[in-house]
Amino acid sequence: MLIATSANGHVMKRPSKPAIGTMLANLRRGNEHMVLERQDEDREGDWYIQVLFRDNNTYQLEYRDSVPGKHYQTQTVSQEKVREALIGWATGKPDWREGFMWNNIGDMFTPDA
Question: Where do the DSSP E strands lie in the chain?
Fold first, then answer.
């Protein structure tokens, strides 16, 4: 099941494409964020995408594929590109990552060996 959590903590199950776009458009500059999360009993790990609207007018987009070591981040000034990525991720489009330069930041979330 897809779950969206808005900047003010409002939780929406199975959000529509317009609802995702509205949540993104309603983010205020200054580190407000939203999260889309996939919860599935048959799938282990954390599967989510989140966006943070920073003070400098950029969007910090991150996603995690199951484990902390597969956590990626990018930044853009384009709300439209972020909206397309969020909706692409939510709908399972295979090319939703295209158009960004992703950095693996998984080492920030994994304990030292």
Answer: 2-5, 11-13, 32-38, 46-53, 59-66, 71-76, 103-104
* pLDDT per residue as tens digits for the range 20-76: 999 999 999 987 899 999 987 676 778 899 999 999 999 999 999 887 788 899 999
What number of other Cβ atoms are within 10 A of residue 3's Cβ? 15
Longest Cα–Cα distance in the chain: 43
Contact 85, 94 (CB under 8 A): no
Edge-to-edge strands of the sheet including 46-53?
11-13, 2-5, 32-38, 46-53, 59-66, 71-76, 103-104
This prediction has a pTM of 0.88
What count of other Cβ atoms lies within 10 Å of the Cβ of residue 24? 22
Three-state secondary structure call for residue 76: strand
